[in-house]
Amino acid sequence: MAKCDEGYRCEVCGRDVETVTESDLYLRFVLGEVPLERLHRQPERHLRCNPALAQYIVDPAFEPVACEGPFAKSELAPEFVAEEEARVSGGFRRLMAIPTLGLSVPEYPLHVTPADG
Questions:
Q1: Which top-rank group of organisms is this from (predicted)?
Q2: β-strands 8-9, 16-17 pairing
């Protein structure tokens, strides 16, 4: 994707991350966790290959992912979990819409809209 939209190999499973809609890297970019200038240098993963983040996606279009260990939602404060579910699920919905929005890459993050430029 960042390299001429051709995809990256997932650093976890080794398969290609073929579309922006299955990209952990682009979800983190949409959420503002990865700056544009570092996008092409960050490792790529499928959403499902990063359970620490994917566990917070609550959407009918995404089969739930469980995270084991100390970072599992069940081990964290309910208030934090609710905030993360809202934040990450909102980012996921934006990620799913990107192919139909006609945006340039700098406009992908949630905090930037086409009207904001």
A1: Bacteria
A2: antiparallel
* Burial grade of 47 (CB within 10 A; 0-12, 13-18, 19 or more): buried
Asked whether residue 115 is assigned to any structural domain, the reply reads no
Within a domain: residue 116? no
Give the pLDDT confidence of 38-59 residue by residue, as tens digits.
Answer: 998 999 999 999 999 999 999 9
Total domain count for the chain? 1
Q: What is the mean pLDDT of residues 66-90?
A: 96
Q: CA 107 from chain center: how many Å? A: 15
Query: Is residue 1 in some structural domain?
Result: no
pTM: 0.86
